[in-house]
Amino acid sequence: MDSKYTELAAKIGLGHSERIARLFSIIADDREAEALMVLPANAPLLSEKLGLSLKEAGDMLRTLFVKGLVFPSLKTDPPTYRLGRDIVQFHDATLLWPDAPRDFLDLWQEWTEEEWPDMAKAMEQISPKPFMRIIPVGLTVRAQGQVLSFEDVEGILDQSAEIAVTNCTCRLAAHKCDKTVEACIQVNNAASYAIARGTGRRLTKEEALDLCREAEEEGLIHTTFNSRSVDHVICNCCGCCCQFLPEHIKRGTRVVDPSRFRARIDPDECTACETCVDRCYFEAISMQDDVAVIDADKCMGCGVCAVTCPVEAIAMIEVLAPDHVPEKLGLAH
Fold this sequence. Notes:
With 333 residues, the chain is α+β, with helices and mostly antiparallel strands. Helix content is 40%, strand content 17%.
């Protein structure tokens, strides 16, 4: 392995990972790797550093942008490009590389299965709050006060200036189920970035809401970064391909916070159809004396059970105070 790729892996904090170095080697040729090593830079500086014409430097930066390797700052003229800050940006951006070969996607999945669990455990230990949180599905919840905009999909979309949808990077790599792949809602700067790269398509608020409703029917769970400012993404996650949910489900790693709500089943209305049992990823629902019962310790408050209950026997009840959701992302503390 060329040392440049190991150095690039080190720049995102994973110089020890041979798989990350290999991912860099697949997505960037030697000349592109040299360009990445001199960032941050604009086209004139890259031209000077690598002995390229200004057009060649500009074309290279555009190629690296489409591949998801560089991010432009429009605060400078011409724009200054930088390498992704961390593994999260490297993962989410490069997996949407339009020309990604299958071996690239498979190597990402190999990294997720072999290296991500230990990294998730380390994140759990250093962060006071999980990196992601669940947003309850779009149905009426019983709250003591107003349901806050940052925990309601429609409220988040109402406040978004730009909305787009991209493929789910997790299902794209893992392909362990047949759930919808084009399902990640990007908002504001993240939406503009996806549209500019050509990896996302613009949505109206109504189109985005329709997509989220379809995701709920499909049994997908809304998640987002764990802060009151939702300014990047609303993921629609399954329990098998997602980076975060399986870590919670299989290993008990705290990388995703529950919503502030919990499912409650009216035993007089329950018809014992067991639809909710089948749909719950967290095994929080069981049958007792022909009635579905919630295990409060396991329920994550996603509401996926409630949205398809044929007799509407399930309600979402507020159980945690608003300050359960931190002002800022847990890892930023």
